[in-house]
Write a structure and sequence with these properties.
- The chain is an alpha+beta fold.
- It has two domains: 83 residues, Winged helix-like DNA-binding domain superfamily/Winged helix DNA-binding domain (Arc Repressor Mutant, subunit A, Orthogonal Bundle); 95 residues, Beta Polymerase, domain 2 (2-Layer Sandwich).
- It is built from nine helices and seven strands, in the order H-E-H-H-E-E-H-H-E-H-E-H-E-H-H-E.
- The strands form two sheets. A four-stranded mixed β-sheet has the order 6-5-4-7. The protein has a three-stranded antiparallel β-sheet with strand order 1-3-2.
- Helix 1 crosses helix 4, helix 2 crosses helix 3 and helix 5 runs antiparallel to helix 7.
- The longest helix is centred in the C-terminal third of the chain and has 15 residues.
Length: 192
């Protein structure tokens, strides 16, 4: 188990949630929710990562709290790999949380295709669609912050909820909807 962090998509998602916030402890149920995996999968894979020394854990009552092991000899290179491959979802979700008017958001394009298991070259950028009534200046801030944190070009596009819901006849939106999309699980926030 010299490289346990590439076993599956679930492991990548779990590592992204832990590596992106190395000082944060998460319960296994929180990891499962944030990574979008079943609790049993999170429990099994987290246990393997703890056993290999990539993650550490401690008990707090009935909770098993987990965090990344920054003292692991491969922490720095694993961190780079995790951020490049699985980091976009939690980073973008975090940046879009609390943004007024976001009904939904997802990653599409080549990055989403690779994450969904389609072959091809490693993506050179990340395409994000935000659906709702969002201030353009706020989306530019999100795009710039995502580029800085991920070290890759991030293209944030927006469309109204009406246009997304009635996309037939719009070639761009039809194409986006017909290809792999990775949801960011951002809930709509009321305007302030």
């Amino acid at each position: 188990m010299l490289t346990p962090f590439v076993r599956s998509d679930a492991v990548g998602a779990i590592l992204a949630e832990t590596f992106l916030h190395p000082d944060r402890e998460l319960s296994i149920s929180e990891i499962a929710r944030r990574a979008g995996v079943l609790p049993a999968v999170a429990h099994r894979e987290t246990g393997r990562l703890i056993e290999s020394g990539v993650l550490t854990d401690r008990r707090d009552g009935n909770n098993r709290l987990v965090r990344v092991n920054q003292r692991h000899p491969l922490y720095a290179p694993m961190n780079e790999i995790v951020q490049a491959t699985y980091g976009p979802v939690p980073v973008l979700r975090e940046l879009l949380e609390g943004v007024p008017g976001v009904r939904e958001a997802f990653v599409y394009g080549s990055w989403a295709a690779r994450r969904s298991g389609q072959g091809g070259e490693f993506p050179g950028d990340i395409d994000v669609m935000v659906v709702g009534d969002i201030d353009v200046d706020r989306l530019i801030e999100v795009e710039v912050s995502a580029r800085e944190r991920l070290g890759v070009v991030v293209n944030v596009h927006r469309t109204s909820a009406r246009a997304w819901d009635h996309r037939q006849g719009n070639p761009f939106l039809e194409t986006v909807a017909s290809r792999p999309m990775i949801p960011l699980d951002v809930k709509e926030r009321p305007r302030a």
